[in-house]
């Protein structure tokens, strides 16, 4: 099975930049970026990231706003902060070089069993198993696992299978048949062949060893304990400009969704169940005299289990300088600041549609 897998990988492997130079640092960056993000989305981000932060020292010394702006659009921004925290630890404790001992790697912020195994096996050909979305699907179908894959016993079984798939002994320099090849091949098989829907079983190199294929269980495996129940949610945002044409924004505080990013005034439940409550919340936040005006646009997006509709309104504010963390910024200034996904979309929409100042601190569509 292993031989068929790596033979297939030798001819089918995608040309990915971190595979050209699989240093521990580059593999680490790629693994973190690819968590819950499609590779096609990651590719341009990876290239820009490596150019700006070519090693752990550069990442450790990065300006947080610039780092978050670099990460903007990938989502799950905690990943970037964890990477910088890990980079600082690497500089302080390991001379700026990613640690090659498993326990040392595992102790870094944002790195768990899978990520540590992936980094060290791919970069250094160490015999460490991996289990993530793609390999979990491949392995559970191969062994015909009908129990939920997130149960403790299932996890133990799958990790054991992942370890047994690796060669017992291999030369560190043998990247063609060693753990580096086997682990990447298993992930690649899940990404290209053993897909969640409509797997390409007829061209799969492991089809004759697959229990799910033999019994027609492909659509039933992997089994999960419970499906996510999505909830609809309405949130509200306001667009406010001062007499100089600058927009009112804030840096989102720690603990909140998109913490550290910049955004327009925005709130939803429990602070704002409706537009009236949003008006009260915003008035408390920014002070002065506030009036919510016309509805400008609606935006839909998803965050974890929520399907959110954001209702954006024009607003006019009179009064002194707003309290921290609120401040006015030009569109050009916001271009260089990291913004939430909806904040960036809203800024781009306003710029593309064109807006003019009302002269009273509000904003109105161009005529």
From TrEMBL:
Adenine glycosylase active on G-A mispairs. MutY also corrects error-prone DNA synthesis past GO lesions which are due to the oxidatively damaged form of guanine: 7,8-dihydro-8-oxoguanine (8-oxo-dGTP). CDD domains: ENDO3c. This is Adenine DNA glycosylase. Its cofactor is [4Fe-4S] cluster. Transmembrane segments: none annotated. One of its GO terms (biological process) is base-excision repair. Signal peptide: none annotated. Its EC number is 3.2.2.31. It comes from the Bacteria. Residues 33-192 form the HhH-GPD domain. InterPro entries: A/G_AdeGlyc_MutY, DNA_glycosylase, Endonuclease3_FeS-loop_motif, HhH-GPD_domain, HhH_base_excis_C, MIG/MutY, MutY_C, NUDIX_hydrolase-like_dom_sf. The lineage of its organism: Bacteria, Pseudomonadati, Planctomycetota, Planctomycetia, Pirellulales. One of its GO terms (molecular function) is purine-specific mismatch base pair DNA N-glycosylase activity. Keywords: 4Fe-4S, DNA damage, DNA repair, Glycosidase, Hydrolase, Iron, Iron-sulfur, Metal-binding. It catalyses: Hydrolyzes free adenine bases from 7,8-dihydro-8-oxoguanine:adenine mismatched double-stranded DNA, leaving an apurinic site. Belongs to the Nth/MutY family. It comes from Allorhodopirellula solitaria.
């Amino acid at each position: 099975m292993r031989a068929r897998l790596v033979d297939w990988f030798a001819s089918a492997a995608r040309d990915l930049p971190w595979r050209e130079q699989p240093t521990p640092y580059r593999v680490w960056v790629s693994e973190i970026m690819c968590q819950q993000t499609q590779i096609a989305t990651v590719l341009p981000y990876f290239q820009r990231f490596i150019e700006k932060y070519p090693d752990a020292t550069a990442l450790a010394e990065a300006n947080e706003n610039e780092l978050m702006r670099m990460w903007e659009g990938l989502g799950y921004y905690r990943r970037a902060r964890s990477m910088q925290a890990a980079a600082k630890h690497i500089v302080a404790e390991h001379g700026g070089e990613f640690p090659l001992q498993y326990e040392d790697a595992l102790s870094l912020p944002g790195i768990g069993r899978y990520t540590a195994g992936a980094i060290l096996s791919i970069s250094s050909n160490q015999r460490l198993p991996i289990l993530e979305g793609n390999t979990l699907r491949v392995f559970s179908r191969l062994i015909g696992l009908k129990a939920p894959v997130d149960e403790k016993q299932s996890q133990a079984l799958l990790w054991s299978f992942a370890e047994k798939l690796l060669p017992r002994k291999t030369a560190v320099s043998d990247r063609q048949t060693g753990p580096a090849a086997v682990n990447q091949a298993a992930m690649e098989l899940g990404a290209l062949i053993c897909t969640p829907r409509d797997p390409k079983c007829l061209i799969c190199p492991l089809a004759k060893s697959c229990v799910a294929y033999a019994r027609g269980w492909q659509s039933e495996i992997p089994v999960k304990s419970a499906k996510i129940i999505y909830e609809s949610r309405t949130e509200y945002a306001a667009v406010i400009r001062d007499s100089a044409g600058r927009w009112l924004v804030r840096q989102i505080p720690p603990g909140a969704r998109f913490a550290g990013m910049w955004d327009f005034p925005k709130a939803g439940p429990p602070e704002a169940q409706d537009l009236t409550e949003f008006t009260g919340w915003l008035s408390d936040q920014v002070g002065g005299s506030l009036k919510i005006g016309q509805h400008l646009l609606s935006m839909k997006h998803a965050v974890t289990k929520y399907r959110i509709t954001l209702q954006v309104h024009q607003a006019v504010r009179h009064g002194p300088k707003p309290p921290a963390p609120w401040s006015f910024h030009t569109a050009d200034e916001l271009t260089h600041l990291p913004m939430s996904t909806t904040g960036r979309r809203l800024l781009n929409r306003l710029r593309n549609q064109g807006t003019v100042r009302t002269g009273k601190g509000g904003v109105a569509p161009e005529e």
